[in-house]
Amino acid sequence: MKKILLLSLVAFFAWSAPLRAEAKREDLITRVETCEAILQDFMIHRDLAIPASVLKQAHAIVIVNQFKAGLLLGIKQGYGVILARKPDGRWSLPVLISAGEASLGLQLGAKSVETIYIITDDTTPRLFFNKRFNVGVDAKAVAGPKAAEVENNNQEIVPTAPVLVYTKSAGLFAGATVKAGYLSRNDDANRVLYNTNYTMPELLYSDWVSAPSEVQPLMEYVTKITR
Question: Which position among 28, 92, 195, 212 has the lowest Cβ density within 10 Å, counted as fewest Cβ atoms?
């Protein structure tokens, strides 16, 4: 938890720097590492962990770190990554995204909100190509079941919505409809991170860009938990 908090603060201050200053690659790497730490932290807690039956059906995984912008104003800014499963079963590079304007009910008291979106179809990830994807509006989103619930009920979970939402903050109930602001592509950040002019579609679904060593741990971890 302390590692996640430290990484989050570093990545946040880098994210919120003046837009005129191009993000440094080491700061973008910190974002990826923060997202990896968030996912790992979810998976080691039974009351937060995503069931294996859900992970096996994932077509994409989005990991988001958002920050409170002011009292009673909700979550206004943040960053994350999206990874897509390719037709042959391999996972893509983690592609950087931006996040904002989430209003998550009882979660308003949190200083940060860490969220994982499990996307269960091939169509929804491509909605990110249109600059901005509104969670719960462009595609139905519901709170996903937790591993502990599945174990207690001794049953497999078959996703019935294109987006399953997992968050650390209280206030969501499994199956409840979720509207959690927008996620948007961040081509400028990815250009710096991967030193390429290829953008989100190519980074997610082609093999034209090799994975640098800094993002491989996240890719390997996602591969491990989704087998």
Answer: 195
Mean pLDDT of 12-35: 74
Q: Specify the pLDDT at position 5.
A: 52
Q: What strand order describes the sheet that includes 95-100?
A: 132-134, 182-185, 95-100, 75-84, 60-68, 112-119, 163-167, 141-143
What is the model's pTM? 0.81
What domain range is 217 assigned to?
2-225
Pairing of strands 95-100, 132-134: unpaired
Check pLDDT > 80 for residue 126.
yes
Quick check: helix, strand or coil at residue 141? strand
C-alpha to C-alpha distance for 115 and 126, rounded to whole angstroms:
20
Q: How many domains does the chain have?
A: 1
